[in-house]
Structures are given as structure tokens and as C-alpha cells.
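Researcher: Sequence recovery benchmark, item below. Answer with residues only.
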């Protein structure tokens, strides 16, 4: 991944990360206990660059303005997820809760553990309007908003190798039939049609997310995520599974995809080494392909496009799935004073021009409007502008299923997805299993 040329030092982020290691070994909620006091708001976030430096610098700049104090502590991903659940359940969460929206946020909202921000956002319409409209869905529970968007957007993208497609006489597919045509041409030419790290399971889930959208429209999964009875039994779910079977029968995925893991970047390597035609993956892989793929990105061999439409389907070509962004909520257990500092930080500190500039320099697309000039000036302008335009034009942006669903349902989902892609369950069995779990 790119590392931004930050305008201010990252020492704060490094020292906060060190304090997080110490806190992880103790039994208290650390600086988040009580949610902050006086004019101080506590904030836990994830360690790792470039975001640790970006958000650490943002807090440092805000604190220098004298509008209140934010104390930020960084944790590694897995440690944070465990610690934040414990702290929220004990009423000892930090003032500002970092999260992913979706199912986890719904749980917090239903338990009254995070504040409803709907009215406050209504009073600060100019702030709300700074953000791209499509990212608010994952922050909303039963038409009430419980979080504000943070950082960059990471939609799932159909990447392709332009050289391979040219060599086999194919093109980036815009329809399902065109996708199947690429599959046949690639097989005939002796290259993998589609690179997929199936062992990781969530990578296979990306195919289901888009297939269900293109077949039934975004409303089908919206009903599933809302917990409507028998939502998994929608006919579009069955058709989705049948399209997976069609790909398996056509041997569309790279040989041995079942044992390939995303963490090793083997799937990306097949694409950048000209051994695969297509790869459906998160936008975050752009940076790793640029860093590790030799001249793959710089030479123009990396292409990108929307997921194809399906004849007779309801989903639009411009609909997106993936991770709209990260989100920040306010703990209900925090003091009124700490909550006011958090809101002031939201308004004046956390997504400033300096922050959005650093996000662009890191090779990502901020979820705020007005980024056209900054993206156009980037060395990755073509890709970043395409992502940004796709984000703005998307009629729907469906959150990744394993984030949108409740954690226990999400785990069953990943297991059942693996079985579907191994041919161990039928589309009907997949739907029935998920419907029973959701019930």
C-alpha cells in the first residue's frame, strides 16, 4: 500500500500504538473507561499505516485548536474487535467508537449502546452533505443514523488483465454472456479465466454479493439484512446459486482455487503475471498490486470495470457492493461533556482537507464530495477517478455481507459459501441453511 506524505508528524500515532499494546495486557477498559470526562473525548482506532498516521495527525491538529481534547489509542484489528465488544457491554466504551456499520452497529443501536445522531445531523446539514450519499446506508438502522462515515471507500471491483484479454480476443465483460465468453476464450488459450482465492471464503462471497444484486436488485439483501422472515428463500437467492454452479461447470475459476488464500496474494499474482484474465476483489488490492506486481499497474495492464448485468435481472450495472467506508459512533455511556467534544471533533477535526488529501496520497478515495481536482492530480488518477465517479453514481451500495449481518449468522454464511463453491450443497440447500440460521 502507498504511504502518504503527511503534513504533520506521525509520532502521536506511534506512541498511541505503544500504549495500546500495554493496555491490551490489562483487564480494564483503559482510557476509554467512562467514555471520557470533562472536555475530553476518548477514541479507539486501528493501528497500521497509513491510517494510523492520518488519524493521529487529525487528532493532534484538532487538539491544538482548543475546542476540546480527543485522546486516541490505537489497537491491532483483532485485539480491538474483542476489546471494544467487552468495553461496550460493560458500559466502559470510549466516547468515540470505531466500527464498520451494518450488523454490528445494529446490535449496538438495538441495545441503546450508541447515540442516535439523526437529529444532530439534521441540525448540521452542511456537514452531512459533505459525504457521498451512498455511504450513509450502513450507518442507518431502522431509518435512524447512529454513525458518521470515516476514511476511504472500498468497493468490490472486477479487475482484468488488459494484455490477456487482448491476446485471447476478449474484452471487459458488461453482461453475463460476455463474461462466459471470456471464460471460454481464456480456457482455450490456456490461461485461468478467473483468479479466486477460495480458501478465504469471503473472496467467494464477493461473487454472491454481486450476483444477488444483479439478479434481484439490492432490495433482496436489504430484506435479508433487516431480518425479514424467509428473506433467504427469495427466488433470486436460488438463481444466484445457479449462476455459481454455471461458473463451476464451466471451470471458470483458476485450478486449485479452493486451496488459495487471499493473505498470500496468490490470486493477485495470477493476474499481474498474465496468467489470469479476471479477478473480482476489493479496491484495496490496487495498492498491493502496484507495490508487488512489478510494472503491472504502471504499464497499463491492470484494467477495472463494473460487475456485469444479468439478462432479466433487476440490478443495475452501476450498483456497488463492498465496504462503503468505516464509521464512528458515540457511546451512550459517555458524559454529556465528552459527547459534545466528540461532535465538535466530527464537525471540525476528523475529515478535514488535510485528512482527505492524505487519503488520496495513500492511493484511496475519500468518502467526501469535491475531490475531483485532488484525484485528477494523483499519479493514480484514472483508477481513483473511476472509483470516485462509481461511488457518486451508484444507486445502491450494498455492504459486504459478513459485515452487514449479525456475527453468528455471518460465520454460518462463510461456511455455507465454501460448501456451495465446493459443490457440496445445492443452491436450494444454501438458501435453506441460511434461512434456518437467520430464523
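Model:
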Amino acid at each position: 500500500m502507498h504511504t502518504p506524505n503527511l503534513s504533520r508528524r506521525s509520532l502521536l500515532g506511534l506512541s498511541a500504538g505503544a500504549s495500546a499494546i500495554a493496555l491490551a495486557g490489562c483487564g480494564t477498559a483503559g482510557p476509554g473507561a467512562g467514555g471520557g470526562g470533562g472536555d475530553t473525548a476518548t477514541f479507539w482506532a486501528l493501528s497500521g499505516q497509513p491510517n494510523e498516521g492520518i488519524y493521529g495527525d487529525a487528532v493532534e491538529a484538532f487538539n491544538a485548536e482548543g475546542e476540546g481534547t480527543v485522546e486516541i489509542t490505537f489497537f491491532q484489528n483483532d485485539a480491538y474487535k474483542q476489546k471494544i465488544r467487552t468495553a461496550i457491554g460493560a458500559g466502559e466504551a470510549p466516547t468515540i467508537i470505531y466500527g464498520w456499520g451494518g450488523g454490528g452497529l445494529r446490535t449496538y443501536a438495538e441495545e441503546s449502546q450508541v447515540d442516535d445522531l439523526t437529529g444532530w445531523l439534521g441540525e448540521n446539514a452542511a456537514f452531512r452533505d459533505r459525504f457521498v450519499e451512498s455511504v450513509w446506508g450502513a450507518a442507518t438502522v431502522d431509518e435512524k443514523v447512529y454513525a458518521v462515515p470515516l476514511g476511504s471507500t472500498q468497493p468490490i471491483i472486477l479487475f482484468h488483465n488488459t494484455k490477456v484479454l487482448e491476446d485471447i480476443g476478449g474484452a471487459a465483460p458488461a453482461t453475463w454472456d460476455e463474461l462466459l465468453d471470456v471464460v471460454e476464450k481464456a480456457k482455450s488459450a490456456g490461461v485461468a479465466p478467473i483468479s479466486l482465492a477460495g480458501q478465504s471464503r469471503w473472496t467467494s462471497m464477493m461473487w454472491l454479493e454481486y450476483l444477488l444484486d444483479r439478479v434481484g436488485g439490492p432490495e433482496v439483501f436489504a430484506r435479508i439484512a433487516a431480518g425479514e422472515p424467509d428473506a433467504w428463500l427469495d427466488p433470486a437467492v436460488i438463481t444466484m446459486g445457479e449462476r455459481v454452479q454455471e461458473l463451476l461447470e464451466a471451470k471458470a475459476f483458476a485450478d486449485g482455487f479452493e486451496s488459495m488464500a487471499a493473505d498470500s496474494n496468490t490470486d493477485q499474482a495470477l493476474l499481474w503475471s498474465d496468467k489470469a484474465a479476471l479477478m473480482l476483489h476489493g479496491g484495496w488490492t490496487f495498492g498491493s498490486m502496484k507495490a508487488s506486481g512489478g510494472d503491472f499497474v504502471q504499464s497499463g495492464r491492470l484494467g477495472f470495470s463494473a460487475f456485469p448485468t444479468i439478462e432479466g435481472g433487476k440490478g443495475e450495472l452501476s450498483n456497488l457492493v463492498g465496504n462503503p467506508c468505516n464509521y464512528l459512533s458515540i457511546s451512550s455511556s459517555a458524559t454529556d461533556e465528552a459527547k459534545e467534544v466528540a461532535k465538535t471533533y466530527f464537525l471540525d477535526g476528523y475529515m478535514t482537507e488535510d485528512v482527505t488529501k492524505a487519503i488520496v496520497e495513500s492511493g484511496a478515495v475519500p468518502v467526501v464530495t469535491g475531490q475531483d481536482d485532488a484525484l485528477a492530480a494523483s499519479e493514480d488518477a484514472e483508477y481513483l477517478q473511476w472509483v470516485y465517479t462509481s461511488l457518486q453514481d451508484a444507486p445502491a451500495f450494498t455492504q459486504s455481507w459478513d459485515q452487514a449481518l449479525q456475527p453468528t449468522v455471518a460465520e454460518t454464511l462463510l461456511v455455507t459459501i465454501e460448501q456451495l463453491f465446493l459443490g457440496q450443497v445445492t443452491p436450494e440447500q444454501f438458501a435453506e441453511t441460511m434461512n434456518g440460521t437467520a430464523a
